[in-house]
Amino acid sequence: MSKIHRRGLMLVLSSPSGAGKSTLSRHLLENDPGIDMSVSVTTRKPRPGETHGKEYYFITREEFDLMAKRGELLEFATVFGNSYGTPRAAVEKALGAGRDILFDIDWQGTQQLMGNAGEDLVRVFILPPSAGELAARLHRRAEDSEEVIAGRMAEAASEISHWAEYDYVFINDDLEASHKAIANILAAERLKRSRQTGLAEFVRELQADL
Ligand code: ADP
Ligand code: 5GP
pTM for the complete prediction? Predict the structure, then answer.
């Protein structure tokens, strides 16, 4: 099975801020050697603990606009007043090598990727168990001011309104169950016939030996 060449897939996780995307992404990357994270560029300032090149490439507005103009971004959008975008080169290199890529991007970026790379895309939307729990998680994360948290809660309804544009949707209540849900989605999607580009040749050889 491992000898059969497979086209890499693009796994997109979207949710309102605080529903658990980063937590679930971190776990997946630590436990699945076949998937890499797409590191976005952003004009937002780093939060305490964030490193350039790890969570994001933190760049200036001028650098961002230049990348967009040169077509170096696969998609880009404005979220909470800052610009975010996916560098094209890293994605194309990984997909070409048969590796899968994980994207933590919003609904606007997902729609653009759907236009550019629909066949390779697997879209997952994560819902919080309730509005109260979403607010509690944003407070517990303790990364943002009260004002920023209020802004994120105000944006949540708009992000959630796009839930039906995704292939898979689940409620991130029990963390273990959510880790399993993502692993199961990935396992099934990797077995899709259309992604297994080397399968026809394998079957031909198999038939020749029968
Ligand atoms: P996002 O990346 O979607 O903004 P985070 O992954 O940063 O969200 O999660 C927000 C907070 O909620 C973090 O403190 C995280 O530890 C917590 N959290 C995530 N998933 C769960 C869960 N299933 N149960 C309880 N807390 C969770
Ligand atoms: P944060 O500032 O909390 O890291 O991210 C804010 C929002 O921007 C999240 O919803 C996240 O998914 C989204 N985001 C991060 N990177 C990108 C990107 O490259 N493109 C798009 N469209 N959204 C992004």
Answer: 0.94
User: How far is ligand 1, taken at its centre, from the CA of residue 15, in Å?
Assistant: 11
- Three-state DSSP class for residue 82: strand
- Tell whether the model's pLDDT for residue 208 goes beyond 50: yes
Number of domains forming the structure of the chain: 1
Nearest CA to ligand 1 atom 13: 141
Q: Is the CB of 83 under 6 A from ligand 2?
A: no
Per-residue pLDDT at 203 exceeds 90: yes
Give me the residue label for tokens 């399968």: 199
CATH of the domain at 14: 3.40.50.300
Domain assignment of residue 43, yes or no: no
Residue 90 lies in a domain: no
